[in-house]
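Recall from the previous lesson that a structure prediction takes nothing but the amino acid sequence as input. Here we apply that procedure to ATP-binding cassette domain-containing protein from Duganella levis. The sequence below is the only information supplied.
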Amino acid sequence: MSDVILETKHLTKEFKGFTAVNDVNLKVQRGHIHALIGPNGAGKTTCFNLLTKFLVPTSGQILFNGNDITAARPAQIARMGVIRSFQISAVFPHLTVLQNVRIGLQRQLGTSFFFWQSERALDRLNERAMQLLAEVDLTEFADTITVDMPYGRKRALEIATTLAMEPELMLLDEPTQGMGHEDVHRVTELIKKVSAGRTILMVEHNMKVVSGICDKISVLQRGAMLAEGSYAEVASNAQVMEAYMGTEAAVLEGAH
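The prediction returns the following tokens.
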């Protein structure tokens, strides 16, 4: 099997004359944590929406494990093992933490999201759900109603529900957005931990997070690929420094 799990060829998305993603060639190596960074409006989220088929490309190709998935629908992509975790904590607030993870696991029963399943039918998922909660350090929160959890822990739960769907490739959209320092550190460590045996592609603004855990970084600017490489290569690239003018450039330097 090729060591490239996801590849885009000349990926382009236009909206009424505005090019949001422009001729992007991206290669994500199997087993890597790969970050997509860039200034606001660079096209990162549009790129994610194309990869998960929430948007249809204007032109170009998307390959997953060598198969062309450009025309596939979002549900087909998810079944193949490309699972996206959303920017806004995508959990059911009035269910317990354990129940949230069980919903992710129902897919394996072939009864995805049948909320009227009997408790007994779902109880057999409890053991696996608890394993996943242990993986993201949420065991003690199993019976907590999700709405009552701290924000950083909700993001950890979201990662657990993503893992429940057995992703081969996890797409994390701004996993540390809106977090305090302690939560950022915890979620960063968590991403590192769950990346074992998986591939992660993430959009992330926090350069300290990116510098600490990413194997490869792709920088977008105005929808086009500006630079690519290790953190050290990207952080010392003059064009990247210019794109991150001012405070953000200082952050790049500081995390270096």
